[in-house]
Amino acid sequence: MTDQAVPAADLYTDEFAVDPYPAFAKMRTDSPVCPVTSPRFDSFLITRFDDAKAALTDPRLSKDLYGPGQHFLRIFGPNSEGLNKNMLNSDPPEHSRLRQITSRAFAPRRLEALRPRVAQIVAELVDRIVPRGEADLMRDFAIPLPMMVIGELLGIPTRDRERVLDWTQVIRESGSSGRPPAVEKAAVQEAQAWLHGYLTDLVTAKRAEPGDDMVSMLIAACDEEGVLSERELVSTTFLLLFAGHQTTADFMGNAMVALLTNPDQLDLLRKTPELLPHAIEELLRFDGPLPVASPRIATEDLEYQGVRIPEGSIVGVVINSANHDPEHFEDPDRLDLRRDRGPHLGFGHGVHYCLGVSLARMEAQLGIGALLRRLPGLRLAKPAEELRRLPAASPFRGLIELPVRFSA
Which domain of life is it from (predicted)? Predict the structure, then answer.
């Protein structure tokens, strides 16, 4: 075991973007708590399942990036506060208050009532694909589906959704355009500013004419109940918008690649579609869209696996490594849709467990089920290792493209 810091450039390579799991395996063995250094900030990566699960509930690891130390400046930059001051970046009791308010929008009855509409959106998107015999499943399906769903939940007017999607994709795909870093940074800042302005205007419009949507519900919590500030209102709306489509889109892309490169499992799922809910959990364990949980800050000196983590350090819990830990999952690098459902960490753990888990599962089940049912002979149009992906240093693991062919 070593506590020598690993340069991020040595870890986050092009090869890592294609397949990070060999690197994760080496880290679990050689440096399960791995110091990583980069130009923007240094951090410690926790890679084993038991340590990861413990860290996700460790009260010494704070999610409050906006308290003393202003850690958000190191992580997200100076223009981020207006969009990131929300429950994702807070601790109890603030987190408990914000989550309780937001959880109303994800009540089981509300989400189940949405199922027919999600199924309709899925059908409409697939209808456009079917006659062509080929498609880019990211551009044509995986990205627009969750955006259309979260757009309806938030109450974003239909005419605005394409523009909102475009700006969110600027943030999602940052670092992959090949433009100079300064140009890329300026584009992201412009996107953040536009989205902050748009969501502020949306709140104003909904305050004047409320509807049966999440934003109107949050406004009521702000204006009538006084339990949400104006800044929290806008930031929470951004969190729901971005988290509501980003990870689901990336997950569906990753899941389809996993199935298409494991034809025995694809055939199994086609023959036994009732296995789909179980398969979604295994696909999430196998290649999740959020490799590292959102950052935490050590509020005191602490130790994991004999490695000292000084107070003020940024700590990343490597969920995708933990989900491939052979101490918890037999033959973890093999996709097995019949695997006994284990306690994977794909949706997190503890008080920050994914709030939108039921919606994500619904969209994935309806979406992937429709693709397998309606696109016979579905196959990749290029080798999996040649697919354009988000950069290895991105907080998300996902595809920029997913070209496929099938029998029209």
Answer: Bacteria
Q: Which residues of 102-122 are buried (b: 16+ CB within 10 A; e: fewer)?
A: beebbeeebbeebeeebeebb
| The pLDDT of residue 184 is above 80 | no
Report the half-sphere exposure of 184 (CA within 13 A, side-chain side): 13
Q: Which two tokens stand for residue 8?
A: 């991020």
**What crossing angle do the helices spanning 230-260 and 144-154 adopt, rounded to 10°?**
150
Distance CA 294, CA 147 (A): 21
Distance of CA 73 to the CA centre of its chain: 21
Q: What is the Cα–Cα distance from 123 to 146, expressed in whole angstroms?
A: 13
Cβ neighbours of residue 116 closer than 8 Å, sequence gap 6 or more: none
Buried b (16+ CB within 10 A) or exposed e, 62-80: bbbbbbeeebbebbbeebb
What's the mean per-residue pLDDT of the chain?
89
DSSP at 293: P
Copy the structure tokens of residue 372: 């397998």
* 319-362 pLDDT per residue, tens: 999 999 999 999 999 999 999 877 899 999 999 988 889 999 99
Q: Please give the pLDDT value at position 240.
A: 87
Determine the Cα–Cα distance for residues 255 and 279; give it in Å rounded to an integer.
10
Compute the distance between CA of residue 170 and CA of residue 123 in angstroms, rounded to an integer: 27
- pLDDT tens across 64-87, in order? 877 666 666 666 665 556 566 778
Q: Give the predicted TM-score (pTM) of the model.
A: 0.92
Helices and strands (H, E) in the chain, number of each type = 18, 11
Q: 6-405 — its CATH code?
A: 1.10.630.10
Cα dist from 102 to 64, 213, 214, 240, whole Å: 18, 12, 8, 9
Domain ranges of the chain: 6-405
Rounded Cα gap, residues 12 and 41, in angstroms: 14
pLDDT of residue 361: 93
List, in sequence order, every residue forming a beta bridge with 44; answer none if it has no partner. 35, 315
Residue 74 has what pLDDT?
Answer: 62
Residue written as tokens 């062919």? 405
Residue 220 banded pLDDT, cuts 50, 70, 90: confident
CA dihedral 322, 324, 325, 329 (to 10 degrees): 120
- Among 42, 47, 56, 3, smallest CA distance to 24 is for 47
> Residue 392 is inside which H or E element, if any?
none
